[in-house]
């Protein structure tokens, strides 16, 4: 970890993704990496929302690192849940499939977060941290 990294400890709450997006946006602007800002904010939102869902009320950790070669960022979120992240959606990721939510859940199709992260990331995955928890990470290139 370098002193330029963004490293935060946050409470898992519905407000967490929004707060993180604000701080990530400021850091990427400082690093002159606004070309990947939109994708980074989507990835951050998805990974943090999953962490909040996996461990509501728990302590989460966020780590954002500027990577030089290849130029980009490494974004990681830690939560205490031992459960590995698994996409709930099984259809191919298309605009039509994302919009295929049942009428009674029109604003929450659900399950598309990890496929979206996979499509926007150069690489992504998770790393267990025994005795509990895991880091879920995404690498985005500029």
From TrEMBL:
Domain Histidine kinase/HSP90-like ATPase intervals: 35-137
Keyword Transferase among UniProt keywords: yes
Parts forming coiled coils: none
InterPro entries, alphabetized: Anti-sigma-factor_SerPK (IPR050267), HATPase_C_sf (IPR036890), HATPase_dom (IPR003594)
Keywords of this entry: Kinase, Serine/threonine-protein kinase, Transferase
One Pfam family cited in the UniProt record for this chain: HATPase_c_2
GO molecular function: protein serine/threonine kinase activity
The keyword Lipid biosynthesis is assigned to this record: no
Protein name: Anti-sigma regulatory factor (Ser/Thr protein kinase)
Species in which this protein is naturally found: Actinocorallia herbida
Origin organism lineage: Bacteria, Bacillati, Actinomycetota, Actinomycetes, Streptosporangiales
């Amino acid at each position: 970890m370098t002193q330029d990294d963004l490293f935060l400890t946050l409470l898992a709450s519905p407000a967490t993704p929004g707060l993180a997006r604000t701080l990530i946006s400021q850091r990427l602007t400082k690093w002159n990496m606004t070309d990947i800002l939109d994708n980074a904010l989507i990835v951050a939102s998805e990974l943090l929302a999953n962490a909040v869902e996996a461990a509501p009320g728990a302590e989460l950790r966020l780590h954002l690192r500027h990577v030089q070669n290849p130029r980009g960022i490494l974004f990681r979120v830690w939560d205490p849940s031992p459960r590995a992240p698994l996409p709930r959606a099984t259809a191919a990721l298309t605009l039509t499939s994302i919009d295929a939510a049942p009428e009674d859940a029109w604003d929450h199709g659900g399950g598309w977060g990890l496929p979206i992260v996979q499509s926007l990331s150069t690489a992504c995955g998770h790393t267990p941290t025994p005795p509990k928890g895991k880091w879920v990470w995404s690498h985005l290139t500029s």
